[in-house]
Design a protein that fits this description.
This protein has five helices and seven strands; from the N terminus they run ααββααβββββα. The protein has about 170 residues and is an alpha+beta fold. Strands 1, 2, 3, 4, 5, 6 and 7 form a seven-stranded mixed beta sheet that branches. Strand 5 and strand 6 form a beta hairpin. The longest helix has about 50 residues. The mean pLDDT is about 95.
């Protein structure tokens, strides 16, 4: 009779171990899916603004988002959309532009994420070539919503020697 009890106990332990492993793997996959979704969201910013798609660009942000640039502040998804439709941005993309962002160093905690990136904006020179117009450090704060991840805050500082930009980058390695 004892061998049956031992076998049952061993089976129960194996099932419990498998359940723990499955739960751990599920958590890891969820974490990886979240990180991939955040990467895709950040990577979508450049194509949306360079194509002039104000609706797509605005949809990346929460309604109460803040985009704090060293040249001004945009408020909410509507503010992002308005910037894309604005004369200055239309002039930039009309001459050729590429907003290049990445790579992203991402930290996720539950339904919140922070990413640190570099960004470069390339502009057409009018002769078929391009030049780098801006290089900056960026901190992105993102939140998970029912509809997916959205940008709630972005702080961009030009890498022109100012301490603020170096502080943003320093956060990525602490």
């Amino acid at each position: 009779m004892e061998p049956e009890v031992a076998a049952d106990t061993e089976s129960a332990r194996s099932v419990a171990e498998l359940a723990e492993q499955l739960a751990a793997l599920t958590a890891r996959v969820t974490e990886l899916e979240d990180e991939l979704a955040v990467r895709r969201l950040i990577a979508s910013y450049g194509p949306s603004v360079d194509s002039g798609d104000a609706e797509a660009a605005g949809a990346l942000w929460t309604q109460d988002a803040v985009y704090d640039m060293d040249i001004g502040v945009l408020n909410g998804s509507a503010g992002i959309s308005e910037m894309v439709l604005g004369a200055t941005h239309q002039e930039i993309i009309g001459g050729g532009s590429a907003h290049n962002i990445g790579p992203a160093l991402i930290e996720i905690e539950g339904g919140r994420a922070t990413a640190i990136t570099y960004s470069q904006i390339f502009r057409g020179d009018g002769n078929g070539g391009f030049y780098i117009w801006r290089i900056a450090a960026n901190r992105w704060d993102l939140v998970r919503r029912e509809t997916g991840w959205r940008i709630s805050n972005r702080c961009t500082r030009l890498l022109d020697g100012r301490k603020e930009a170096r502080e943003i980058l320093g956060r990525a390695v602490r």
